[in-house]
């Protein structure tokens, strides 16, 4: 059972492989676009966070600079006024006039090390200044190899350059909201990615679904027409309509082929029946000599008829008709066929009335043309009750006859049958048009088609 | 046994019809030809046949239409055999629905046709054909019986013919000329017997059914009421 099920699924998968592949390709495309979108978003997010960190570091450094300068100014004022040293700078001697600038800076560095542990302060007059700070000018700098933000400021009165250095690796701790911001933005990015993936899958399914259903319908042995999506205004509708039209054309073609085969068999059955009947008669002991002679003559005629039929069907069956093309006088051909009908068919009582008859010369296969004309004329004469009009003008022949009242023309299979006649017309490259009304039947043959 | 049985063969192919007719003639049948349905109908209207053979595809009127008219307009119950190249089940169904008794597909063995004709002739006319109910009357065309309200009367052949014509045009009025045309092909005897025949038919029906069946419409003709 499992094997059968898996085989069934395999069959289904094989049948729908292309559509599923289309679905997968579509999903992959959407996912790729979503990924690119997410990558761009992440890149922008990274830069945004980095910028925020920089801004935060700069604000921090500016604040630190203000504090440093404020302390320096305080010390300077006290030095000038000889007042007492501020309590938080107890590391300085009582007499500030003997204290050098370097000592003051060192005291400040130690002081800020305590109050701002993340900040490193260097100056041009103190020791251990990192080499990368020396060439920096006044202002903000980012030193990526150390991942540090630097603020360089100049104390013109003391000819001192101050370097406030902040390690960026700790930037997220600058502001309490920054980590939350980063977490929030990352969550949004992940959410967008997830939604993008879901939308990609849903969209690809939605787009592929009608196509999948159409493919399922088309792959059925006998699909119902019109196919799914026939009324859609998009490309799937166009596909559906095209498939529907193609299937209908194929069905019509098959129907025509069946009808043709049926008519061929019908045409061959008649002479076969005649031959069989005559043989039966010849076997009868009671049959007179006259009857036997008539039977033999009938066999001869039926055989000739069969030979002609088979040759016609062989010619029609060939892919390339290679009949002998010769110039034919249409008027003479029509008269010749009328003579044949007149001599062979005693049952035809309606006389044709030829209205206009030009001497049209056409290039055609004489044998096939004869068969075509014979069938059309014979049919018109046999179906008419009173008048058959034959009008020949240049290369167009019009055969127009009345119809017996209550006679169903559609069932009037006579002569070679419509399918065979149409085939002969196609083979001769002439256009055959049949029009019916309540009381008349018109056949137009355009030989110059 | 079936010698001199009259056969009507309606077939558009004269060679095929000739070969069948020659064979049947040797066996002793009397064979009439018609090369289209319309001609076949004319022969059936004017002649008596023991059996009919119809082709299906024919000019002017096809075999199915001919058979339908035979059964429903002429109320003719003779056996009908279709002889055709149409071999599908649908074709055969259409043939039997039109009123056929048998169906033989071409090509066929004439011996088989002969055997089938024998079988059909031995059964005789169909019993289900020829009963017509119209204007309250029930007419059995096979036995020339007319019934009304439980009463029954048998008509003579010519009376039945006149009644059939009047019923065919019911409820319209049928003129004297139409009746004379149908009965005597437009050439009635000089004694002008139509009025007499109508009088006798009317009297027969009125006495039997105690009601007026045929009404004379002044200057127009006769009408079934």
Fold topology:
The complex is a heterodimer of chains A (449) and B (225).
Chain A: H1 2-15, H2 17-81, H3 101-115, E1 119-123, E2 139-143, E3 148-155, E4 160-167, H4 177-218, H5 235-283, H6 289-317, E5 325-329, H7 330-344, E6 352-357, E7 361-365, H8 366-383, E8 388-393, E9 396-402, H9 418-427, E10 431-436, E11 440-446
Helix pairs in contact in A: 2-3, 2-4, 5-6, 7-8
Chain B: E1 6-10, H1 14-27, E2 30-34, H2 37-46, E3 51-54, H3 63-72, E4 80-84, H4 89-98, E5 102-105, H5 110-123, E6 131-134, E7 137-140, E8 145-148, E9 151-154, H6 157-168, H7 176-184, H8 194-209, E10 214-217, E11 221-224
Parallel strand pairs in B: 1-2, 1-3, 3-4, 4-5
Antiparallel strand pairs in B: 6-7, 7-8, 8-9, 10-11
What do these coordinates show?
The complex is a heterodimer of chains A (449) and B (225). By secondary structure, chain A is an alpha+beta fold. Chain A folds into three domains: 162 residues, no CATH class; 83 residues, Orthogonal Bundle (Helix Hairpins), CATH 1.10.287; 122 residues, 2-Layer Sandwich (Heat Shock Protein 90). In chain A, 57% of the residues lie in helices and 15% in strands. Chain A is built from nine helices and eleven strands. In chain A, the strands form three sheets. Chain A has a five-stranded mixed beta sheet with strand order 6-8-9-11-10, covered by helices on one side. A four-stranded antiparallel beta sheet of chain A has the order 1-4-3-2. In chain A, α5 runs antiparallel to α6. The longest helix of chain A is centred in the N-terminal third of the chain and has 65 residues. Chain A starts with a helix and ends with a strand. The N terminus of chain A is likely disordered. Chain B has 225 residues and is of the alpha/beta class. Chain B has two domains: 118 residues, Rossmann fold (3-Layer(aba) Sandwich), CATH 3.40.50.2300; 94 residues, Arc Repressor Mutant, subunit A, CATH 1.10.10.10. In chain B, α6 packs across α8. Chain B is elongated and about 55 Å long. Chain B starts with 5 loop residues before the first strand and ends with a strand. The mean pLDDT of chain B is 88. At the A-B interface, α5, α6 and α8 of A face α1 and α2 of B.
């Amino acid at each position: 059972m499992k094997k059968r099920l898996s085989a069934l699924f395999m069959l289904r998968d094989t049948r729908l492989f292309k559509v599923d592949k289309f679905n997968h390709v579509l999903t992959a495309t959407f996912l790729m676009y979503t990924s690119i979108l997410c990558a761009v978003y992440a890149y922008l997010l990274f830069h945004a966070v980095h910028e925020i960190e920089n801004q935060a570091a700069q604000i921090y450094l500016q604040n630190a600079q203000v504090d440093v300068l404020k302390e320096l100014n305080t010390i300077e004022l006290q030095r000038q006024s000889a007042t007492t040293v501020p309590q938080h700078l107890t590391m300085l001697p009582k007499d500030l006039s003997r204290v050098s600038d370097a000592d003051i800076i060192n005291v400040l560095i130690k002081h800020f090390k305590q109050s701002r542990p993340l900040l490193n302060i260097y100056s041009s007059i103190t020791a251990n200044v990192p080499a990368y700070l020396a060439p920096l000018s006044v202002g903000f700098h980012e030193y990526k190899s150390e991942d540090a933000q630097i603020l360089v400021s100049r104390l013109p009165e003391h000819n001192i350059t101050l370097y406030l250095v902040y390690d960026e690796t700790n930037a997220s701790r600058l502001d309490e909201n920054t980590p939350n911001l980063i977490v929030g933005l990352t969550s949004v990015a992940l959410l967008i990615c997830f939604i993008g993936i879901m939308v990609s899958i849903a969209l690809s399914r939605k787009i592929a679904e009608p196509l999948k259903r159409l493919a399922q319908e088309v792959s059925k042995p006998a699909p119902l027409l019109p196919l799914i999506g026939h009324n859609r205004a998009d490309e799937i509708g166009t596909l559906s309509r095209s498939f529907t039209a193609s299937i209908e054309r194929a069905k019509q073609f098959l129907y025509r082929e069946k009808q043709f085969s049926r008519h061929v068999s019908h045409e061959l059955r008649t002479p076969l029946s005649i031959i069989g009947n005559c043989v039966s008669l010849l076997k009868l002991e009671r049959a007179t000599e006259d009857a036997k002679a008539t039977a033999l003559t009938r066999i001869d005629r039926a055989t000739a008829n069969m030979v002609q039929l088979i040759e016609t069907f062989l010619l029609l069956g060939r892919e390339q008709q290679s009949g002998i093309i010769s110039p034919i006088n249409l008027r003479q051909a029509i008269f010749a066929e009328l003579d044949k009908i007149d001599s062979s068919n005693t049952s035809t009582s309606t006389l044709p009335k030829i209205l206009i008859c030009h001497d049209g010369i056409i290039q055609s296969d004489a044998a096939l043309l004869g068969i075509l004309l014979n069938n059309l004329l014979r049919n018109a004469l046999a179906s008419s009750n009173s008048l058959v009009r034959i009008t020949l003008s240049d290369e167009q022949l019009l055969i127009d006859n009345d119809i017996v009242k209550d006679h169903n023309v559609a069932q009037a299979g006579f002569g070679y049958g419509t399918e065979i006649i149409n085939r002969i017309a196609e083979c001769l490259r002439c256009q055959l048009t049949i029009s019916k009304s309540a009381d008349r039947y018109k056949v137009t043959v355009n030989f110059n088609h | 046994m079936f010698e001199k049985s009259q056969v009507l063969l309606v077939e558009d192919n004269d060679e095929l019809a000739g070969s069948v007719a020659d064979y049947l003639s040797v066996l002793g049948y009397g064979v009439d030809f018609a090369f289209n349905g319309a001609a076949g109908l004319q022969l059936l209207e004017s002649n008596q046949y023991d059996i009919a053979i119809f082709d299906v595809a024919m000019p002017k009127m096809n075999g199915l239409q001919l058979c339908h008219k035979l059964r429903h307009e002429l109320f003719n119950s003779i056996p009908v055999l279709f002889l055709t190249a149409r071999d599908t089940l649908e074709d055969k169904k259409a043939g039997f629905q039109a009123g056929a008794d048998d169906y033989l597909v071409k090509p066929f063995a004439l011996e088989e046709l002969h055997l089938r004709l024998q079988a059909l002739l031995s059964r005789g006319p169909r019993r289900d054909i020829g009963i017509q109910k119209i204007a309250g009357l029930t007419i059995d065309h096979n036995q020339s019986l007319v019934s009304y309200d439980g009463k029954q009367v048998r008509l003579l052949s010519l009376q039945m013919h006149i009644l059939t014509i009047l019923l065919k045009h019911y409820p319209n009025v049928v003129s004297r000329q139409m009746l004379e045309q149908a009965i005597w092909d437009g050439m009635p005897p000089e004694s002008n017997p139509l009025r007499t025949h109508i009088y006798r038919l009317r009297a027969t029906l009125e006495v039997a059914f105690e009601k007026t069946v045929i009404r004379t419409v002044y200057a127009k003709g006769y009408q079934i009421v």
